[in-house]
Design goal:
Layout: E1 4-11, H1 16-25, H2 28-35, H3 40-61, E2 70-72, E3 78-80, E4 86-93, E5 96-103, E6 107-113, H4 119-125, H5 128-136, H6 142-160, E7 171-173, E8 183-186, E9 196-201, E10 207-214, E11 219-224
Parallel strand pairs: 1-11
Antiparallel strand pairs: 1-5, 2-3, 4-5, 6-10, 7-8, 9-10
Helix pairs in contact: 1-3, 2-3
This protein binds coenzyme A.
């Protein structure tokens, strides 16, 4: 099995010409979801994220971007019709998008723009041991540490195709910010951390990224998307 995971990184603010092309590739479902966004900038960024995802997955499947068909599970996780073994996951935050692609095993990815953190939010989002560690770090480091913790949790949830409505105690991840993250326990699953891998990456200055995958020994390849890079 090819254990490579490719992460594509892309800016979401693009030219009018790019937007016109991306817009023409969206399905009816995507166009409807896009139209529900209130701000023009959010609609443009959604269109770009989905356009670039279609471009990359189209190249990998040999299909045209506009003919790819997606189905979504009960929590909204998309997968590809006709190319079920090609696994992917998209994440976008502010002006940046990332897409993880793998063959034959599910992946989850999350990117977040690093911003000041209210401790009250951290108390809801993180476990007690993670909160304790956050409280012990200086004001300067705490946003980075918070988003490191937060993105790795979301990446795990996104591999499983679940949503954030899950109780926060369904899993334990090593809390130490300074060490590589490991999944220690996942409720309701007999598999343990031994067959999961978590990675962190910095997709751009001011952003934090995390990726989670089933299996061991994966290699992570980070690429900047351009129309000719795929
Ligand atoms: C999945 C979820 C955790 C992502 O949160 P987020 O940080 O706001 O979003 P990200 O930018 O990281 O990821 C969004 C992308 O992940 C993918 N995605 C959507 N739902 C997903 C899920 N349950 N699992 C994995 N990936 C998912 C989509 O490609 C989505 O992109 P899109 O919204 O442009 O179509 C959040 O959307 C959630 O909790 N969803 C579940 C809601 C739910 O259960 N709804 C039921 C009715 S659909």
């Amino acid at each position: 099995m090819n254990s490579q995971i490719t992460v594509w990184i892309f800016e979401l603010d693009r030219t009018a010409g790019d937007l016109t092309a991306f817009n023409s590739w969206l399905s009816g479902d995507e166009a409807q979801r896009c139209a529900r966004l209130l701000r023009t900038q959010d609609r443009d960024r959604f269109t770009t994220a989905h356009g670039i995802m279609r471009h990359i997955l189209g190249k990998m499947t040999g299909e045209r971007p506009e003919t790819l068909a997606f189905v979504r599970n009960a929590h909204g996780k998309p997968s590809l019709e006709r190319h079920e073994s090609l696994e992917f996951n998209l994440s976008h935050s502010d002006g940046l998008g990332v897409l993880a692609v793998a063959n034959g095993f599910p992946v989850g990815i999350d990117v977040e723009k690093i911003a000041p953190v209210e401790f009250a939010l951290a108390e809801v989002a993180l476990s007690p041991s993670e909160c304790a560690e956050l409280a012990s770090c200086g004001q300067h480091e705490s946003p980075t540490h918070f988003y490191r913790c937060w993105t790795r949790k979301e990446a795990v949830i996104k591999v499983l195709g679940l949503g954030l409505a899950q109780p926060p105690d369904i899993y334990d991840i090593t809390p130490e910010f300074s060490r590589e993250p490991r999944l220690l326990r996942l409720a309701g699953r007999s598999e343990t951390s031994a067959i999961w891998e978590l990675f962190h990456f910095i997709p751009a200055a001011g952003y934090m990224g995390a990726l989670a995958a089933y299996g061991r020994g994966h290699s992570l390849v980070l690429n900047r998307w351009t129309p000719s890079a795929v």
